[in-house]
Amino acid sequence: MKHKPRRPVGKSPGKPGSSHSQTTADALCAAAVRLLRAGDLVQAEDSCRRALSLDAGSVDALRAMGQVCLALKRFDDAIEWFARAIRLDISAPESLIGLAEALRSAGRLDDAIKAYDRALQLRPDAQDCWDALGELLQRTGRHAEAALACDRLLQLAPDRATTWFRLGGGLEAQDRRDEAALAFDQVLKATPDHVDAANKAGAVHFDAGRYDEAIARFDRSLAVRPDQAGVLCLKAIALRRLRRYQDAQPCGQRAHVLAPHDPDIANSYGCILQNLGRHDEAVAVFDKAIALRPQTAEFYNHRGTSLAELHRFDEAFASFDRAVALKPDLADAHWNAALFRLLTGDFARGWAAREWGRQCRAVGFVERSFDVPLWLADAPLAGKTILLHSDEGLGDTIQFARYATLVAAQGARVVLEVDAVLQPLLSGLNGVAQCLARGIDAVPAIDYHCPLSSLPLAFATGLDTIPAVPRYLPPAPAERLAAWEQRLGRHDKLRVGLVWSGNPAHLNDHNRSMPLATLEPLLDRDVRFISLQKEPRPHDKVQLERRSDILDLTAEIRDFVDTSALIDSLDLVITVDTSVAHLAGALGKPTWIMLPYTPDYRWLLGRDDSPWYPNVRLFRQDARRDYVDVVARIAEALVAQAAGFTPE
Predict the structure, then answer these.
(1) What are phi and psi for residue 606, nearest 5 degrees?
(2) H or E segment to which residue 154 belongs
(3) CA distances to 135, 137, 169 from 142, in Å
(4) Contact present, 55 and 17 (Cβ < 8 Å)
(5) Which residues lie closer than 8 Å to 315 by C-beta, 6 or more apart?
(6) Residues 229-261: pLDDT tens digits?
(7) Sign of the four-CA dihedral 554, 555, 561, 565
(8) 548-589 confidence digits (pLDDT tens)
(9) pTM, two decimal places
(10) Which of 95, 148, 314, 499 has the fewest CB atoms found within 10 Å of its own CB?
């Protein structure tokens, strides 16, 4: 009788749990991982299933099956396999990471974040896990938490450029722009040719008004990828805001060539041409922008400005009107139209529309709020106290301070508040009971207030009703006048004060100012020139120091009272359109003002006199927009002026 051989207990090759089946399951699992890496997903899945048939409790096989399903994009199956692995071994971070990846792929982002968070509690040094968590937190708008995740990862891997980039994005989303810029710059340290980081850093600096820094980042991006129309456009705008118009032009033009159908890029390029005084070209580009997007009010506003600069005023006003029709609250269009209406003598509409300037960011009105009503000639003033407060530049304050006398004539006690530098000059103005330095002196109890530049509107000022008198500023103290007479010496020649440039921060400075060298044709006349130019620009300062024919005593000028005393000691002032022009005019001093082709509104058009200042004579550029001819005409007039001088 034959006996069947007996198998050793626990050694059956088909019995789950036996060491042989375990070894086989491990081998199948390892094979599945190799097949998965090789991209043979069908065979990998088969190996996983065979492994699990031998050992249903194999965490490695469950996890491998999850990875296979994840690769096959069967995300729900993957989630189930990883979940089974976690139930068998909750302390294995790999299963939690796999589950998080499957949940993320399935679009269950909040659940994925929780899974990553649990995995990182078990393995806090898992860099890829921190990276994935940071990305998910950012995608779900949890930017503060995303930034923390990025910070943690950067502690583990400080040179990880992708993490710095993500951190920058998260900080930017939280409006932590300075920190965002630093993060993007860290990306560029690790990866100098990272175009997106350079653009992001540039945009952050641009938004913060740090235009030089923005340009440097845009240049890094453009060095790698030169034909980015949007980046070129932003660089051009940054250069334009730095008033580097010549540098901005080729960038703006290239952007427009690359994106000819982008109306915003066309509009931006048109503005650069406008700044360069190339208004014919600017109008053509604005027309392109309008053709591409005809309902954009801003395009018509910009077009109107260039048309007005070309003295095509009817077309300009039609363009401004169209802008306002499309966007009734577009303050810039109201403001620009107002200035050109005033320039062309339409005071009735100009003064009212000029009030829109208070809503324009670029205009720079000094806005004040008071607990008393605004007065615009709509209430009696007898027995009342009214505050007249300066709200524009120094020249505007001097020009409109004349209205204080008219207000006082209505029975009001007039308190005038001005920039501190003008307070000593205007304290003795006729009709002013008290003159305050803004920001220094406390405002007393008042019944009404009115900004100085609103007074022409309040008095319905027309060309024939401008309150013009030969002089309305009080004289400087006698001792100051005597001191300046002594400094000037013998009055044996015509004394002529010179100012050739204004405040470089003024938006129109490139049109109104000139270098001292432009005045060369004047300087051989037989007169004594005295510089009234405060803070000459570096190249002018060098030239001024070399010239013995211009007396420069500006170091002795302490304030506007000194300037007024010096002007009172002169026979004539020749100046560009600056505060000195207003000061000399208000002192009644013969004053010759050199004006650009399209001057400030107050000088009007087509006349050589000023209804604001009876002693002013205007010398205008013609359509060539060149001061050379202006200076030549002044030189000729100066000969006649000097011929009529009688030495004292």
Answers:
(1) 65, 25
(2) helix 143-156
(3) 10, 5, 12
(4) yes
(5) 304, 307
(6) 999 999 999 999 999 999 999 999 999 999 999
(7) negative
(8) 889 999 999 999 999 999 999 999 999 999 999 999 999 999
(9) 0.79
(10) 314
